[in-house]
Amino acid sequence: MNKGYSLGAKDSEQKRLLLQREIYGDTEDIHFPPDYRVAEFGCGAGANLWIAQEVSLGGYIGLDIQSAQVDKAKQAAQKLGLTNAEFKLCNAEQSGLDDSSVDAAFARLVLIHLPTPKTMLQEMIRIVRPGGRVIIHEPYDATYYTGPDKFNLMKCFRARNVLAYDNGRGSPEIAVNLFPLLSSLQVSKVEVSPYVINANGTKDREKCKHLLENLVGLITPVSDQLITQGKITPEEWRSAQKEACVITPHTFHTQTLWRALAQVN
Ligand SMILES: C[S@@+](CC[C@H](N)C(=O)[O-])C[C@H]1O[C@@H](n2cnc3c(N)ncnc32)[C@H](O)[C@@H]1O
After folding, report:
1. Nearest in space to 111 (alpha carbons), one of 177, 24, 66, 67
2. CA neighbours within 13 Å on the CB side: how many for 19?
3. Is the pLDDT of residue 20 over 60?
4. pLDDT tens across 169-226, in order?
5. Range 11-264: architecture per CATH
6. Can you give the residue ranges of every domain in the chain?
7. Which residues contact 117 (CB under 8 A, 6 or more apart)?
8. pTM over cut 0.90
9. Residue to mutate, 3, 64, 74, 114, ligand 1, most ligand atoms under 8 Å from C-beta
10. What separation in angstroms does the CA of 190 have from each of 11, 28, 37, 178?
11. Is 109 in the pocket of ligand 1 (CB under 6 A)?
């Protein structure tokens, strides 16, 4: 059974997810017509409820496998006063939604957590009407880079990635596999483009600080396990946290997400 999400659904993690989209700004140029009905796969704590705000005449359905995430997303929708958002607690690989029942399916930072992401992609394609869209965002963590003054932070992050995704727990390579994977399914007009999140410490200190805090937030839930397993030392983790707080002229922080758009035939 899919356990959902390696970083869990603690309050701190949900808060991080909600903040992350604001910091990344990676969906700001994506738009849906107001009469669209959109399903979000792995909606999490509701970071992408901007979709429901756009599809005012259509509707939004958020699917997630973890009840704590669905509860949080419902609260977020209520806070925003949304009346067109509904949620379903389910393994979205078997969503239970009808064939061709939505205009678009959207997933952000979800497939990387799945050992066989093709299953969810097929489900997304199944429920989208012909001519509708499938939209995916996935990170490629090898492109998550901080400058040379963040050596310990990057060491801890890489160890965390192995813990979270390797040995069949997830799909660390999904971002670069989106094009071949989608091309092998019944879709056309597959477009994959990089979205680069870039902050130079000397030029955009505030964004750089937020991105570094976000990186620490990714490691924190599993840092004890990494230490117990001998993947990092307590000293390396302490140094990593300090490194994240100090922005120097050398600090450079960049991450690339891959974004795929495909049309269902
Ligand atoms: C990193 S979070 C991303 C949340 C949200 N998409 C965002 O952009 O903030 C991954 C989410 O996918 C959910 N998830 C993982 N596997 C799932 C599955 N098989 N079905 C539904 N949700 C799943 C997790 O519970 C978690 O909420």
Report:
1. 177
2. 15
3. yes
4. 999 999 999 999 999 998 999 999 999 998 888 888 888 998 999 999 999 989 999 9
5. 3-Layer(aba) Sandwich (3.40)
6. 11-264
7. 111, 171, 174, 181
8. yes
9. 64
10. 36, 20, 21, 9
11. yes
